[in-house]
Write a structure and sequence with these properties.
- The complex is a heterotrimer.
- Chain A is mainly alpha-helical.
- Chain A folds into two domains: 57 residues; 79 residues, no CATH class.
- In chain A, helix 1 runs antiparallel to helix 2 and helix 3 packs antiparallel against helix 4.
- Chain A starts with 6 loop residues before the first helix and ends with a helix.
- Chain B is mainly alpha-helical.
- Helix content of chain B is 74%, strand content 1%.
- Chain B contains 19 helices and two strands.
- A two-stranded antiparallel ribbon of chain B has the order 1-2.
- In chain B, strand 1 and strand 2 form a beta hairpin.
- In chain B, helix 9 runs antiparallel to helix 10 and helix 9 runs parallel beside helix 11.
- By secondary structure, chain C is an alpha/beta fold.
- Chain C folds into two domains: 187 residues, D-Maltodextrin-Binding Protein, domain 2 (3-Layer(aba) Sandwich); 103 residues, 3-Layer(aba) Sandwich (D-Maltodextrin-Binding Protein, domain 2).
- The N terminus of chain C is likely disordered.
- The chains are: A mainly alpha, B mainly alpha, C alpha/beta.
- Chains B and C meet through helix 3, helix 12, helix 13 and helix 17 of B and helix 1, helix 3, helix 4, strand 6 and helix 8 of C.
């Protein structure tokens, strides 16, 4: 940890350069070209050039004033919300259905924002999810991802 | 005079009780679905098509038009209250609108959006009735080179959304353009940056990125600093209704927004996004209180919302006069016409004047219904913000994921939403603006496709951009907009040195 | 933006309305439209749903939408549903090209062919003030300098693009050199035609019909074997001296690994549907041409089309 180097700016700069490299690599592997005018690789190279310039600028900034210094984050809150979203995705992927997924997301987010009543929030989430599910099904004839609970309602 | 007579005839159709009922159902449904992120009027009309198969054509088309206008109204509500722009056209509204809502000015924000939409819808529908045949002649003269130049103007003015650091603003913009590259290239059909993931072939959805960066990112950010500086949401501060000052600051943006939205919406590839961006940056430039931009300036809601609604009416110009569907909803409405064996176009005005003019008259009726329906709702909506913070944000996240779950519940899509949410958090943490990224995703692919079409037609000669008066003028405007700030700065310094 | 809003729909009121009992009334079907609600394949799937339930052939029909990659994501899901005798998928000509273009790991020939249902002829048009009057005029220009003939049409690798390439080939030009400009959505291509930005445009007849009747576009040729019933004045490409036929067909397939009994049930149901008066009414309302081919003939047809499309796409340089 050097005193003069701003780590976040350095990381952003390097990531931008890496992104530029990926874009250039992908563009270099394009096989189909346009017969007339500019081909499908022109825009990627423009974006790539822009990313390189911005990446280098970030490196310069890293050795100068750096990025704005953020305050310490509440990691536990982030983990609860992130966990809620991950739970939702897992629930949908495993066929748990919309209502359970919604209950997971709702209760975890409320927990992340400092509410300490997980069972009550799970119940609220279940009711909310069921209401939304029925509303979509009946009003819009659109069926949200179905799991065991949805089949009971359906 | 002919037009007035036809329009009067149209009103006699639109005021039939059954037509009024269809219109009411339409605006109600439209507002309801417009509020849901990711579920817009196009999907609603598509789902209702088979149901309306047996109904009377005029009635169901009037209902579809009501849904269309209603959806535009509803979209602004979530953008302002929850910072979750459900469609790309309400992105600009969310920028200032959500700031206003958090400062207790959600009422005036929703009111200026609703009244602005009404004014814009009214003017644009008058434009549709009287100028359509003339405007459409102009619209089809717009070539790919003109579109490209228009995109460049939009790109240049986008810096209005950059915040205080050009470096971080540009980084955000270019990351958006990078995301815009992902998927099948429209002009050759080959995949770019998909890494063999089939779900990426269709590209990154604008709504996924916008909802992720805005709503999910904000939830992460607010939670992360909850202990240090708890966010204070004030549901109502001062008047729920617009003050005299608000009116004074709103009317000109409404008119300017309409002036952007209607003609650009009438262009076959104009869309609703470009006019809202142009309106936002114009208002920021012209505003007497530029320091309020970024903190909740009412002009930033009034202008883009008017532009959004006016472009919806603009879209109907090529649809009715030529049968050109230029937006998703217009494409579905065209299918609605065709299901009754009707082909919109020059012949329809001659063959079925009752239907066409009845439809146009219904748009006026729908507009009035919407403003009557929406204004009383404002008080109710604003009270949503009084929900305790844990539940409010939990609800916002449920809401944000619901759109994705309804339209494309694949784990890949949901994973992207999560990822963009976390990115939005990091960007907020280090003070990168998030709006330019969405703008880059929208404008990048549009500009690329139009430029390549232009150069394909000219067989690779870039001079085509300067030889056409339309594109040359627009590029000139873009150039002036780009260098003017520097020149002004230089002049000021020069003056200062002289003094 | 279209796909942003439209991705997935499900049971419509039609399914609920059609709970009549009849011979096949036990049959429960799922029809997948491998595209967004509102598009052509979705329209076909929902029309099938309507016909199957209204005529009492099936007890319930559920339409699902799987969006993406020219339908190949839906196809991959269908191939994965091995042995499911209740699943059908709508597909069509465009998917053949999309499979090649997207280097899809699954192939249409892996699916069980059930029937071809409809077909639409494409039409080549020019702006009304164009000096090009006949297919022969256009063919001569393409042969002389393919770069100067700009084509407006739908997505790259779709039916419109394939027709432009086949036209160049039939005209004696080099299909690799065609100047084909894909537009997103019919509206934009039509605007480019009306604005006189391009030499010629290709689309389904229905999409250009209004403008043709209004005299703003001139038909150069229809890609069918004979003149269309609803447009007796429009010559075929063959009449214009360009020996070329292409139909944008839509069909229905089932998952692989079906037993003979399952296959017979499905193709029997679709056969009944294709001959029902409900289906005939839908075809008429939608302006689709009946192009019914039963399972075995459709199988052979599909194989022939696959070979043809693959050759064209190689000729154009889209597949290497």
């Amino acid at each position: 940890m050097s005193r003069t180097i701003d780590r976040p700016a350095l990381v952003v700069g390097l990531l931008l350069l890496a992104a530029a490299a990926i874009v250039a690599f992908d563009a270099s592997r394009q096989t189909i070209t346009s017969n007339y005018g500019v081909g499908p690789t022109a825009m990627p190279y423009v974006v790539c050039a822009g990313l390189v310039v911005l990446g280098l600028a970030h490196l310069v900034v890293a050795f100068k004033e750096g990025l704005p210094k953020p305050e310490v984050a509440d990691v536990r809150a982030l983990l609860w919300i992130g966990g809620g979203l991950a739970g939702l995705i897992a629930c949908i992927a495993l066929g748990g259905g919309f209502i359970i997924a919604t209950a997971i997301l709702f209760s975890c987010t409320a927990r992340g924002f400092g509410r300490d009543a997980l069972p009550a929030d799970i119940a609220i989430g279940l009711v909310l999810g069921s209401a939304i599910y029925l509303l979509f099904l009946k009003l819009l004839t659109l069926s949200l991802p179905a799991g065991p609970l949805e089949r009971l309602l359906g | 005079m002919d037009t007035l007579l036809s329009l009067a005839n149209g009103f006699s159709v639109a005021f039939e009780p059954s037509k009024l009922l269809f219109c009411l159902i339409g605006v109600f449904l439209g507002t309801a679905v417009g509020v849901l992120p990711g579920i817009g009027p196009a999907l609603t009309v598509a789902l209702l098509l088979p149901v309306t198969f047996k109904l009377d054509p005029a009635g169901s088309l009037i209902m579809f038009a009501g849904i269309y206008y209603g959806g535009m109204y509803g979209g602004s509500t979530t953008a302002i209250l929850l910072n979750a722009p459900g469609e790309s056209a309400s992105l600009a509204t969310a920028l200032e609108g959500s700031k206003m809502a958090k400062a207790g000015r959600g009422g005036p924000a929703l009111a200026t959006a609703a009244i602005g939409s009404f004014v814009a819808g009214l003017i644009a529908t008058i434009g549709l009735a009287f100028l359509a045949p003339w405007l459409v002649e102009l619209a089809i003269k717009f070539g790919p080179w003109d579109y490209f130049a228009l995109m460049i103007v939009a790109f240049v003015t986008v810096s209005a959304t950059f915040g205080d650091s050009p470096l971080r603003g540009l980084t955000s913009l270019f990351l958006g353009m990078l995301l815009g590259l992902v998927g099948i290239d429209k002009l050759t059909g080959q995949a770019r940056l998909t890494f063999g993931v089939p779900e990426l072939l269709n590209g990154i959805e604008v709504t996924t990125l916008a909802v992720g960066l805005f709503a999910v990112g904000e939830a992460f950010y607010v939670a992360s600093k909850r202990w240090r500086e708890p966010e204070e949401i004030i549901p109502i501060k001062g008047s729920l209704w617009m003050t005299k000052q608000d009116w004074k600051r709103s009317w000109a943006p409404w008119l300017r927004g309409t002036a952007y939205g209607f003609p650009i919406g009438a262009l076959p590839a104009g869309g609703a996004e470009v006019p809202t961006f142009l309106s936002y940056s114009t208002e920021k430039k012209l505003c007497k209180y530029p320091e309020e931009f970024g903190k909740g300036a009412i002009e930033g809601v009034a202008g883009p919302e008017a532009a959004n609604n006016a472009s919806a009416a603009g879209t109907l110009v090529p649809l009715l006069t030529l049968g050109l569907p230029t937006s998703a909803t217009a494409a579905i409405m065209l299918a609605g016409f065709q299901q009754y064996g009707l082909n919109p176009g020059p012949l329809l005005f001659a063959e079925k004047p009752d239907l066409v003019w009845g439809l146009i008259a219904s748009l006026f009726v729908a507009n009035v219904m919407l403003v009557i329906l929406n204004l009383p709702l404002i008080g109710l909506w604003v009270r949503l913000l009084a929900v305790p913070q844990p539940w409010l944000y939990a609800g916002i996240l449920v809401f944000a994921t619901m759109g994705t779950l309804a339209v494309n519940p694949s784990p890949v899509e949901l994973g992207m939403l999560f990822l963009f949410g976390y990115l939005g958090y990091l960007m907020r943490r280090y003070d990168y603006p998030v709006a330019p990224m969405v703008v880059g995703l929208i404008l990048g692919p549009m500009a690329e496709a139009q430029l390549r079409r232009a150069l394909q037609i000219s067989l690779g000669d870039p001079m085509i951009l300067l030889e056409n008066p339309g594109s040359a003028t627009l590029l000139g405007i873009a150039f002036i907009a780009l260098v003017a700030p520097f020149v002004m700065k230089g002049l000021n310094r020069f003056k200062a040195a002289e003094d | 933006m279209l796909t942003a809003i439209l991705k997935r729909g499900a049971v419509t009121a039609v399914a609920l309305a059609g709970l009549t009992t009849a011979a096949f009334a036990q049959l429960e079907l799922k029809i997948m439209a491998p595209a967004a609600p509102g598009g052509g394949w979705d329209g076909t799937a929902r029309s099938m749903q309507q016909a199957l339930t209204a005529s009492g052939i099936a007890k319930s029909v559920q339409v699902t939408n799987v969006t993406g990659a020219g339908g190949t994501i839906g196809l991959a899901q269908l191939i994965g549903a091995k042995g499911d005798g209740h699943q059908l998928m709508v597909n069509g000509f465009v998917m053949v090209g999309a499979i090649l273009l997207n280097k899809s790991p699954v192939n249409l020939t892996q699916a069980t062919p059930i029937a071809r249902l409809t077909a639409e002829a494409l039409v080549i048009v020019v702006p009304a003030d164009s000096p090009i009057k006949t297919a022969k005029d256009l063919a001569e220009r393409v042969k002389a300098d393919p770069a100067k003939v700009t084509w407006a049409g739908g997505s790259a690798g779709g039916a419109d693009h394939i027709l432009a390439a086949l036209f160049a080939e039939a005209a004696g030009g080099d299909p690799k050199k065609i100047n084909y400009i894909p537009f997103s959505g019919g509206g934009e291509a039509l605007a480019a035609m009306l604005g006189g930005r391009v030499t010629a445009g290709i689309s389904g007849y229905g999409e250009f019909e209004g403008q043709i009747k209004a005299g703003k576009l001139r038909v150069i040729g229809v890609s069918a074997s004979k003149r269309l019933d609803n447009a007796p004045d429009a010559p075929t490409l063959k009449e214009g001296g360009v020996n070329l036929e292409l139909l944008n067909w839509r069909s229905v397939v089932a998952p692989p690994g079906l037993t003979d009994a399952q296959k017979a049930t499905l193709s029997g149901a679709i056969d009944k549907m294709a001959k029902s008066k409900e289906w005939a009414e839908i075809l008429k309302a939608r302006g689709w041409d009946d192009a019914y081919l039963a399972s075995a003939e459709f199988d052979a047809f599909l194989k022939a089309e696959t070979v043809r499309v693959e050759k064209v796409m190689r000729d154009v340089g889209m597949v290497k």
